[in-house]
Amino acid sequence: MLYFLFNSVIEIRHLFFPSFLRGLALILLYIPIGVYTAQKLGLPEFLTTVPIQILLRSFIGPAFWGAIYSYGLYAGQQKHAAAIVQGMDANDPFLSSRLNPVIQGFMSQGKSVEVAQSLGIQSIWGAVQTQANLAASKEIFGYVIIAGFLVLLFVLLLRFAPINLRPLVKLKNRFRKKEMIKDELEMMAAVAP
Question: In sequence order, which ranges of 9-85 are alpha helices (DSSP H)?
Fold first, then answer.
C-alpha cells in the first residue's frame, strides 16, 4: 500500500490505515515472541532472555537497520539526483518552462539577472532534491517489500521441527561436574595442611 503512496502531494489521511497496520504488525511481532519464551522456558532462563530480547528489539535492531536505511537513502539520493540532472540544460523545455517564470519573478522583485538566475537554479535544485529523495525512498521501500515476501515464503516453506536439546543439556551437566570436582579439589587443598 505505501509503495504506491510515495509522491510529493500525499495527505496525512492516506497514512492512517498503513500506520494502523504497522502498529498491528509490531504487536504481532512482540507479543508472540514474549509469550512463546514465557511458555517454553523456566523462570531463571526466561529472566536471562528478557534483557537480551529488549537489547536486540529496542536498541541494536533499530540502530542497525536505521544506519542501513540512512546510508541507502543518502546513496540513493545522490544516484537519483545525478540521473535527474544529467539531461538538464538550457535547451530542455521542461527546465525552461519552470526556470524562466522563477527568474522573471525574482527580477520583478528588483534582483539582478545573476542573483535571479542563482535563486532560480536553487529553487529548481530543491525540486530535484525532493524528487531524488522520493525516488530513493521508494527504491528502499521496494527492497524492503521484496525482502519481506522472501521471509514470508521462507517461513511458510520451512518445517519447524522440535529441537533436541538433550546433547546441550548433557554438555552443560558435564561442565558442571568438572567445575564441582575442581571446587572440591580446591576446598580439599585449602583444608589439608
Answer: 16-40, 43-55, 61-85
